[in-house]
Amino acid sequence: MAAVSYDEQIPNNVNLSGDRRLQRALERWHPGFIDWWLGMGPEGFQDNEVYLRTAVGVDPKGWAHFDFVRMPDYRWGIFLAPREEGRVIPFGRHKDEPAWQEVPGEYRAMLRRLIAIQGDTEPASVEQQRHLGKTAPSLYDLRNLFQVNVEEARHLWAMAYLLHAYFGRDGREEAEALLRRRSGDADRPRMLGAFNEPTPDWLSFFMFTFFTDRDGKFQLESLAQSGFDPLSRTCRFMLTEEAHHMFVGESGITRILQRTVDVMQEAGISDPWNEDAVRRLGAIDLPTVQRYLNFHYSVTLDLFGAETSTNAANAFNAGIKGRYHEVKIDDDHQLLDSTYPVLSLREGRFETVEEPALNALNARLRDDFMHDCAQGVKRWNKVMEKAGIDFALALPHQAFNRQIGQFSAISVTPEGDIVDEAAWEERRSERLPTASDREYVASLMQPCYETGRYAGWIAAPKVGVNRQPGDFEYVRIAE
Ligand code: BYC
What we know:
Blueprint: H1 20-40, E1 49-55, E2 64-70, H2 108-128, H3 139-166, H4 168-180, H5 202-224, H6 229-267, H7 275-280, H8 286-301, H9 310-317, E3 339-346, E4 349-356, H10 361-387, E5 411-412, E6 418-419, H11 421-426, H12 428-431, H13 435-444, E7 475-476
Antiparallel strand pairs: 1-2, 1-7, 3-4, 5-6
Bound molecules: benzoyl coenzyme A (BYC).
């Protein structure tokens, strides 16, 4: 396994010093990246020391090294999972041919587009989260936010590397463009919808890392199957980082729920729908958590594209983007004759239709994602069950609040009833965060930077980062 070299300006395990042209190209991109980080990365805290983990190798078991570092000095770099000798393309028309080490000419445009989309999401999320440090509920959470941010920035490096190393001049231009687009900008927005939504508060942040980073897990896993070996190896290593981001989201919401039920129990509030009573105690009421969940889940479902897609079929046929856990699936991996059941709209009603499996790949990946989300929601609901509070969070119906695909044309309740637009609008405030929900959540967002202390709306974590004690100073705030 190639060890990570930290002696060079750009840490890497791809023998960058052996390719002077590529090294120079990346060294030219580097200052633009640092400018972007300083201008669009976390606001403030750039001079504070933060307890961060850095990759020291690509072995999933022991890759991390924890230490205090100023974020601009973080050792971003290029880390690929080790090359598997004799790897073959696992699916599609080229199944069982040797995996490509160079970009196959006929699929160049398709590959470049997928890598650019993936690359675009990474800086976008950092931009979305850039103001959150000012309102962190604890030093522990502040540190987790920054860990997520530096790793998303490293994922940007991963895609910029592929563009520079394998796509010549247009790859370089694409890598420059990744630094120029801006989340939410009217003229130069990020490519995908969810990455232009603001992340104004920590409830949104935890929902984003639970749902949207999970989209990342499923998309990266499908790209990790790719017959283009450098993409596969890059994504395999990125997946090990993504797991932590989903942990931040899942545990963040668990801690919010825990605090809410604790406060309700202490005050003897048994009716979870009594939002005002819970709010008067400074906790986040459960219906508000549900509305935020509805928003983030539905916006993230859009990231999987249309239910039936020839783009997805072409990428699979070409051996460029596979299915989730492709190699573990027991079928012919070509899908020429098979079908897949897709929830569809037929004459104004839902109907499950057997579509050609190749065209249904987006729907299939979305199904895998929905299943994974449902498991997480079950774990969240244990908090209320244990406290004996009669409230369960639920994923809304997959057609609820959609902007992409066939369901974007209809109005659907979280329970899955198709209603007319006026009826939907009338009850919007029960289903999606309202201005007053957002105002209330915003009012709670006061920083809590005292070592070992937590804001009143969130419980302390069960264990510290890298098993550090409860009073550990994760971010050195005091000058
Ligand atoms: N917004 O045939 P369709 C992550 C476009 S998250 C705007 O269904 P396809 C992360 C589509 O481009 C993972 N446009 O498209 C998480 C197409 O346009 P063209 C990111 C959209 O290609 C947290 C047209 O509509 N990675 O890593 O099958 C923090 C027709 O649609 C949207 C990837 O997504 C949308 N939501 O599916 C940090 C992987 N949806 O070509 C990071 C790469 C569709 O007709 N991307 N369109 O002009 C893909 O695999 C696919 O491009 C998509 C879309 C799944 C996104």
